[in-house]
């Protein structure tokens, strides 16, 4: 299911799928995100697999990626807003980078 953004939303489309989506595409979540980002020239956000709900993997339109932190308050309202990058992302050099805390570097 693709859901277009409301006029006041800051991020964009939301793709929701289940194992059927992975089975149908033959791709895992990250690979699908890279394909969509490159095809449509957009950013995609994917769960980074960590225990931190505010950390995601941002995939740039060129397919490069890196972990980012989102605004938790805005996310609670359904709006995903990037606060900063936790590592350099070659396709998004304008994103302000802040390294993760020492205890979170291995997540």
Automatic annotation (TrEMBL):
It comes from the Bacteria. This is Immunity protein 53. It comes from Micromonospora purpureochromogenes.
């Amino acid at each position: 299911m693709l859901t277009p953004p409301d006029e006041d939303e800051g991020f964009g489309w939301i793709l929701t799928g289940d194992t059927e989506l992975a089975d149908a595409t033959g791709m895992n979540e990250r690979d699908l995100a890279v394909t969509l980002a490159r095809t449509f020239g957009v950013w995609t956000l994917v769960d980074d697999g960590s225990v931190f709900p505010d950390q995601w993997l941002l995939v740039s339109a060129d397919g490069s990626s890196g972990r980012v932190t989102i605004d938790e308050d805005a996310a609670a309202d359904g709006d995903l807003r990037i606060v900063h990058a936790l590592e350099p992302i070659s396709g998004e050099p304008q994103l302000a980078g802040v390294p993760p805390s020492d205890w979170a570097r291995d997540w």
